[in-house]
Amino acid sequence: MRYYVGNTNDIPLAYAGDINMYNDIKRSEQQWMFKYYLPNQVFATEEGTDIQTRVENQGYLTAYDDIWLKEGYIVVNFQIDSIKDNNYTIPRLSYGTVATGYNNEWNTEGYLNTKLNYNTLTGTYDTLNFQNGDVALFYTDQKASDDVGTYGTH
């Protein structure tokens, strides 16, 4: 969902009644909100796992096969680009690694590539390493429906 949040409080008096100027200023800054989730039953493997060959050799796969990851995270990575004049080859603003002379906004905004995570099982801290654009982590052993329930009043 997109919200226009440009500051219209300080519009010069000469443009005070100009609805086009008001709309341009309002649209000059945007805020985007979204929900991102994975299905309740996700089967994740190590990168590069050849599932097709496994099925051909074994004849089938089940939820209990040893190729499915049981611990760890699924990392969601976004590359966010602002495009001008339909020029997709050279983004005007990019949150990815850009060799076009424009800033890498992850670096500009101080994106942290490491974070300490407290491991409740071991009582120790793990260092998580990120790449530019890693914006969400999902536990492989949990699902969205773990956070909701059905309750009655009596």
Shape: elongated
H/E element string?
A: EHEHEEEHEEE
What's the tally of helices? Answer: 3
Q: Give the % helix.
A: 10-25%
C-alpha end-to-end distance: 38 Å
Q: Tell me which oligomeric state these chains represent.
A: single chain
For the largest beta-sheet, the strand count, sense and barrel status come to: 2 strands, antiparallel
Q: Which blocks of ≥5 consecutive residues have pLDDT under 50?
A: none
Using the CA coordinates, give the radius of gyration.
Answer: 23 Å
Number of strands: 8
Strand order of the main beta sheet, please?
1-2
Write down the overall mean pLDDT: 80
Which structural class is indicated by helix and strand composition?
alpha+beta
Strand content: 15-25%
Description of the molecule:
The chain is of the alpha+beta class and about 150 residues long. Helix content is about 15%, strand content about 20%. It is built from 3 helices and 8 strands. It has a two-stranded antiparallel sheet. Strands 3-8 form a two-stranded antiparallel ribbon. A two-stranded antiparallel ribbon has the order 4-5. Strand 6 (about 115-120) and strand 7 form a beta hairpin. The longest helix has 9 residues, at about 20-25. The protein is elongated and about 75 Å long. The mean pLDDT is about 80.
Keywords:
two-stranded antiparallel sheet; single chain; alpha+beta; 3 helices; 154 residues
Fold blueprint:
Blueprint (H helix, E strand, L loop, with lengths): L1 E3 L14 H9 L2 E3 L18 H8 L14 E5 L3 E2 L10 E2 L10 H4 L5 E6 L4 E6 L4 E6 L15
Antiparallel strand pairs: 1-2, 3-8, 4-5, 6-7
